[in-house]
Amino acid sequence: MTFAESTRIVTARLHNERSWTISSYLAAGGYQGLRRALTMTPKEIHDQVNTANILGRGGAGFEAGRKWGMLRQAQPVYLTINGDESEPATFKDHALIEGDPHQLIEGAVIAAYVIGAAQVFIFVRGEFPLAIERLQAALNEAYDYGAVGANIFASSFSVDVVVHPGAGAYICGEETALLESLEGKRGYPRIKPPFFPAVMGLYGAPTIVNNVETVSNLPWVVLNGGDNFAALGEGRSKGTKLLALAGHVKQPGNYELEWAKVTFRDLIFDPALGGGIRDDNELKAIIPGGVSSPWIGPEHLDVSLSNEAIAGIGSMAGSGSVIPMDHTTCMVRAAWRIVRFFHRESCGQCTPCREGGGWLEKILERIEMGQGRESDLDLLMDVCDNISPGVSWPPAQTTICVLGPSMPPSIASGLSRFRDEYLAHIREGRCPFPPDRLPRRLARV
Amino acid sequence: MARLNPDNLAHAEELIALYPERRSALIPILHVLQEQDGYLSEDGMAHVAELVGIKPVEVRGTASFYDMFHFEPVGRYLVAVCTNIACMLQGAYRLLEHAEETLGVAPGGTTADGMFTLEDAECLALCGNAPCVTVNWRFFGDLDPQDFDRLVEDLRFGRLDGEVPAHGTLSRVRRRHSLKAAGSTGSASDQAALPNESQPGSDASEGPAPDLPAPGTHLDLSTRRSTTATAVVDAKHLENPK
What we know:
Chain A has helices at 22-27, 32-37, 42-52, 64-69, 92-99, 101-115, 129-145, 175-182, 212-216, 218-224, 226-230, 264-269, 307-312, 331-345, 351-368, 375-387, 408-428, 438-444, and strands at residues 78-83, 119-124, 160-165, 207-211, 233-234, 237-238, 240-245, 253-258, 283-287, 321-326. Chain A is of the alpha/beta class.
């Protein structure tokens, strides 16, 4: 079987004409999963989801069924869908909301039925107005159709869904920050414990926070059964995964593939997928799971893109974003841009993240500008150690959330692989790569 | 430039009715205020504070956390060039420098005619079409400098008015239903907006989307340039502006 023939679950309808409308969705079998679900008990569906072993698709990879099972028994219960996709080079949820908003609504209503939610909030990143418009239009249609609201499809189940726009803050993807934001506050992650919103979430009530891709799988799981979902993939990584491929490949894009059956080499080089490195350049490094993950190298091309396999080489699958970088890429510049992002997006509550991020950004900036010192390499690691003691993987944490500890991996893995490149910047007093006019840019930042 | 006008006040009350606690409607209402004035004025924020039952300083304290809110006027078009890693690898900094030269402003600056404000943005989640730009958060991908100049010209002459509403407009689609579950009394919004928008299965009208939909019309949410809703397996995922 070629990759082009791989089973598609969440992206099966994305190519249909006006795929975001209810007429298109119904013509493709839409809302049959919800109809079936309402003939089952919540427990029966929960069992199917446990059998399917759906790992959360937001990055942490926590089993959705297990998360639902942790719900504190109290009323009311809220369901919140996390559509605040902001991790650099991750663009899968964006595509799912814009392209198939009814699938998201259907999945959300099924999840709400299982957990007995009083209300669903779909938190969509504010920078996605087209997604918000299409989702709101779809929700209006779904209410008219009877798939949302009172007595859904003439059953006794009722639930309301509200589309809630964010306003621009990466940290609101962290679930407790998301809930703060949904309460109309600054998006400050909450101090743990309690670790799980399932215990104490929105307005202090038990709350489930699920990712867009996670719940988008539910209609298929209900219709086809958890065992058929679990027959796809391998190990803990069941079903399909929507992989967001960006960076130096010929054919970047979102690819839904059977999970754990694809290696980095397949994804990057297969003609039906990435199609190879641009200009047939040499592959230098890969960021395997979002910019929080440690970089890996060409020697890892034959590693499978599963949670377990990537963890086995000291990195993580994260949100499913893969960024190959070719031999023309300056590794100092890449690390600088990633750290600059985290520094900009630090909420400022914890000193190691707020201050450390600024230090790291400035040190990397001066190395890139040709003004670094050899002692800067130790200084970088020292600051990393203050943010995440031991600079190990998985990272230790001195902060409320994992944003701070997401900074050191790019630096530590970059330094261990490309120390000579850092030193060349320092000894030659300039960046050895084509300028890309970055120095002038940096001088003004 | 002051308080919410009567229509937006009614809209704000509808939003408040959607949440168990009034304050949850704060950010959605601030988007409405920004759509009205282009930015968040002191008077406007004070009005919103009254509506959700908190102090004006709490409104500002919350709003200032979020990148999308502006506290002084910006251009009609907010042009955000992504320079994060995926776009950087595809030459985003060259594109940003070109944008600076074309518009004659640095990031954060607004052109003298008030048409354009330039921003150096973080990842906009259109990484399959890097480098990318948003205009009032509507997406344009795979841009080279010539594409960028063409985009600016199209905006300047109003050729993209259907796709790119004025700055601050988050959603041209309004919710048509109050809360219905659990015996909620809901708000008046059931009667308020767009009673005749498309019924299930009906064919929506084609043609360019207006800035704001007139009651009874269906907003065409297809777009020529700015879709990310594709890009699966075959990577021919954008109707390229080229």
